[in-house]
Amino acid sequence: TFEQGSRLRIMGKYAFFSCSNLRAITLLATVQKLGESCFEECELLTSVTFEPNSQLQKIGGDAFVSSSIQSILIPVSVQVLGEGCFRSCALLAEVAFEDNSRLTRMKAYTFIESGIRSILIPASVEVLGEECFGRCELLAEVTFKNDSQLATVENSAFEGCRSLRSMCIPRSVEVLWDGCFQECASLTSVTFEQGSRLRIIGAKAFFSCLSLRAIVLEEAPRLQEVGEDAFCDSGIQISDLPMSLRMLYAPGF
User: Which terminus of the chain is more exposed, N or C, with fewer CB under 10 A?
Assistant: First the structure.
């Protein structure tokens, strides 16, 4: 607990690192930053809540690595989720964001190897970092708020999400980088919002998506490049190609 009237603004690196008896914490509204590894290896920490009107702007890298939190509601004020901040949180099943979230970036490894089962990504998010949801084997549903501003899905962002069944790519996305959906074994449907701005599908983007039977690339009329092995070892039989396509690396399919 914190004394009434506390003006605490920053929790520094390793502030509660490996606090073996810490089970719950309510973070003050005045806190603007959680430092790197702030609650790393707090193995009994199951509950993290925030006071109303939180001013928190950044959750630092590895902030909650290997903790036992089961759910979290990210305050509207948070703009950045740092690298690996929820990495290996095996019990973390539910992640939600307050309405009108200002989050712009989920950095690399944000939720890698966590227990997350579904997520609604705020419209303000512009980048999903490398392996952001890598090997989240229970992640079955990913949706995006209306008017998504997402522009880039970086390398291996959803690699190994074996329970993910479908994906609708927001119209704002311009690049799906290498391996972004690689080895999503249950993925059966990939669609693109009307007016898609997608230009590039990277190498091995859908590699070894064994259940993927069809993807209509004509729904992405600005698509210019499909990388090497983008759809290899997937279940795709037929894919219509847009007139805009300029580069198809062999073997693309």
Answer: N
Tens digit of pLDDT for each residue in 141-189?
Answer: 999 999 999 999 999 999 999 999 999 999 999 999 999 999 999 999 9
Decide if 164 contacts 187 (C-beta within 8 A).
yes
Following DSSP, what letter does each residue of 167-188 receive, concatenated?
EEE-TT--EE-TTTTTT-TT--
Contact 187, 212 (CB under 8 A): yes
Do 152 and 173 meet the contact criterion of CB atoms below 8 Å apart? yes
Q: How far apart are CA 109 and CA 140, in angstroms?
A: 18
| The CA-based dihedral angle spanning residues 120, 122, 126, 127, taken in that order and rounded to the nearest 10 degrees | -40
Q: What angle do CA 38, 94, 132 make, to 5 degrees?
A: 65
Structure tokens at 35: 């430092």
Instruction: Compute the distance between CA of residue 83 and CA of residue 15 in angstroms, rounded to an integer.
Output: 17
d(CA 92, CA 74) in angstroms, rounded, equals 13
- CB count, 10 Å around CB of 243? 7
Strand, coil or helix: 51: coil
Q: What is the largest CA-CA distance in the chain?
A: 64
Distances (CA, A) of 40 to 9, 22, 64, 217: 19, 11, 5, 42
What gap in Å lies between CA 252 and CA 119, rounded to an integer?
A: 30
Q: Is the overall model pTM greater than 0.70, yes or no?
A: yes
